Amino acid sequence: MKSDLRNLRVIRVGGAVALLAFGVGGCGLTEAMEANVDRDEALAAYKACLAAHASDVTPCDSAAQAYVADLSNAHRRRGVLY
After folding, report:
1. Which pTM was predicted?
2. Pick from 34, 39, 13: which is nearest to 79 by CA?
3. DSSP letters along the chain, please?
4. Are the C-beta atoms of residues 32 and 78 closer than 8 Å to each other?
5. What number is the average pLDDT over the span 27-49?
């Protein structure tokens, strides 16, 4: 009986420590998902610009730069898990 209670305490303490680590450090999952959405939106804008300006892609330079920046941000490591 005492062994069971001791094991239960260890599990509770371990769970609390894990919860605290995620709360303080964050897992970065939400930020990573937002970065992927930004990247996808920038890619869609760039493709739309290329389709609209097939003969002269110069107006699409800023859209291309935005996509490259968002692509870089999407691959950046974040948080504890990611």
Report:
1. 0.61
2. 34
3. -HHHHHHHHHHHHHHHHHHHHHHHH---HHHHHHHHHHHHHHHHHHHHHHHHTSS--GGGHHHHHHHHHHHHHHTS--TTT-
4. yes
5. 89
